[in-house]
Specification:
This protein is an alpha/beta fold. The protein is 40% helix and 17% strand. Helix 1 packs across helix 2, helix 1 packs across helix 6 and helix 3 packs parallel to helix 4.
């Protein structure tokens, strides 16, 4: 029986003694929390799984557990990780006392509302070690390596899961890890470091990365020998199952690295020097190629435009490019990949209503957070998740007395909980007139109304897109500075 990454992650966390999991407010967060909690209850292990309304908050809570020498983890979409960069960067310097693993999940191709941020390259920028999964069967074992690496070098470790990796058999061993008691040791020079101590911590960080790279040579590199030295391929572990059949069929040497940062440079340089031509395949950003001194001699995203045009998760175009390179033909003149035909989907009631609204003579500007619920709506501008209310407030201030079209912000309840609450508070404080349409998920309805009902300067108006008076309600002059129009999820 095959299993998905979520159930394997739940088993792996318990087996490796993780006692706290913080889950960002990502798509499927409730399912993850339920599966982890059920597994913890079944195995009678004290693993607490909580959902946080912000990546920054979730990261900080999980980090606190690791300060007390307990094992903890933080789960988020890879493209949302930059929201937690403030505590993340600080924790890289100070380090941790218990094992702390940041689990990043990416879909391939990227979700339409994602920022296309590559978490692996972000980890390289932050100087955080990364372990990348090649198959779900190995998840618990690799998670053990991540926690061990974190504790041995007292540093946060990224554990990257890409949904393109093959599924494997369910490996429910029913084992539980070691339970730990909180043991926080005071050390102001580390936990409350001044700039002088930060400088010393930075030197230790660089030394730590060198030691991690050297320790990662054994077991972190998978090499499949070929009969010829004309062409060699280096790829990240998530692409191993995609590339391996082609490489074995053509007897091409293949080297895959499980820890894309920090890299053990010597064996990779040697691999490149031992082949007449080397190809480096990885996702989005050339993290591996960027680190290798000999990497500029290789073909890859850093040096060849053909690899930027071919996405690593598109098997057929990638294999066609590799075939051309194997035959000695340059792939530089390849045209852009044709986009797959889009299936025509009947517009939702909300999308139909907004289309009619845009057709009005005095139509408002529609500015929306780019989220799963708003990505297909006909709007004028998309902004980063949680920014619609801020942009709407800024537009209202900038408009002044000039005759400009009104503006309507569009968001959903996850984005509102993510950053919209702060933007709403700021709009009230600065008396900025804001109108915002919010798509509310059922599980957030009580929380959203509890918050908004406490705000004396906010009026909440439920709307139904199919009602005749919806447009009149939407464009009517508000009686309070901030007006939030709520729409149920099933009409979006």
């Amino acid at each position: 029986m095959e299993t998905d990454w979520c159930s394997q992650l739940a088993e792996g966390l318990i087996e490796n003694g993780c006692q706290y999991l913080s889950i960002a407010l990502m798509e499927g967060a409730e399912d993850v929390q339920n599966q982890v909690s059920q597994a913890a209850g079944r195995l009678k292990f004290p693993l607490v799984a909580e959902r946080a309304v912000s990546e920054k908050i979730g990261y900080e809570i999980a980090l606190t557990y690791s300060y007390g020498k307990k094992r903890s983890a933080f789960l988020t979409h890879g493209f949302s990780l930059p929201v937690a960069m403030d505590p993340l960067m600080s924790s890289i310097y100070t380090g941790v006392a218990g094992g702390f693993v940041i689990v990043t999940v990416d879909t391939t191709p990227p979700l339409p509302y994602s920022s296309n941020c590559d978490p692996v390259s972000l980890a390289m920028f932050a100087k955080m070690p990364v372990l990348e999964l090649s198959g779900l069967t190995h998840l618990s074992f690799l998670l053990k390596q991540a926690f061990t690496l974190s504790e041995q070098f007292e540093t946060p470790v990224m554990f990257h899961i890409d949904t393109k990796i093959p599924r494997g058999p369910a490996l429910s061993r029913g084992k539980t890890g070691k339970k730990r008691r909180t043991d926080f040791e005071k050390n102001p020079a580390r936990w409350a470091a001044t700039p002088r101590f930060r400088f010393l911590l930075h030197k230790k960080l660089n030394q730590r990365l060198r030691e991690i790279a050297e320790s990662g040579i054994k077991g972190q590199i998978t090499q499949i020998g070929g009969k010829e030295n004309n062409l060699g391929i280096i790829c990240n572990h998530a692409n191993l199952s995609l590339i391996r059949p082609w490489a074995e069929r053509h007897h091409i040497s293949l080297l895959s690295v499980q820890m894309p940062f920090p890299l053990p440079i010597a064996p990779l340089n040697q691999f490149i020097r031992s082949h007449k031509k080397t190809v480096i395949i990885e996702d989005r950003f050339p993290t591996i190629q960027f680190q290798i001194p000999e990497g500029k001699k290789a073909l890859g995203r850093l040096t060849d435009n053909s690899f930027r045009q071919v996405s690593s998760w598109q098997k057929d175009p990638l294999v066609q490019l590799l075939d051309k390179i194997r035959r000695g033909k340059s792939g530089r003149k390849m045209s852009n990949n044709p986009q797959p035909p889009s299936n025509k989907v009947k517009p939702s009631p909300l999308a139909h209503f907004l289309s009619e609204l845009k057709g009005m003579k005095s139509a408002p500007l529609l500015v929306a957070d780019k989220t799963p619920l708003t990505a297909k709506l006909p709007v004028d501008y998309f902004v980063s998740r949680g920014g619609a209310i801020s942009v709407t407030a800024g537009y209202a201030h900038a408009q002044g007395d000039k005759k400009a079209p009104p503006i309507l912000g569009i968001t959903d309840s996850p984005a509102f909980l993510h950053y919209g609450m702060q933007a709403t508070t700021n709009a009230i404080y600065n008396t900025a007139p804001v109108r915002c349409l919010m798509v509310v998920r059922p599980e957030h309805e009580t929380l959203i109304h509890t918050f908004l009902d406490t705000m004396t300067h906010v009026q909440v108006i439920p709307l139904k897109p199919e009602s005749k008076d919806t447009r009149q309600k939407l464009l009517k002059d508000p009686s309070l500075p901030v007006t939030i129009f709520t729409i149920p999820e099933d009409v979006a």
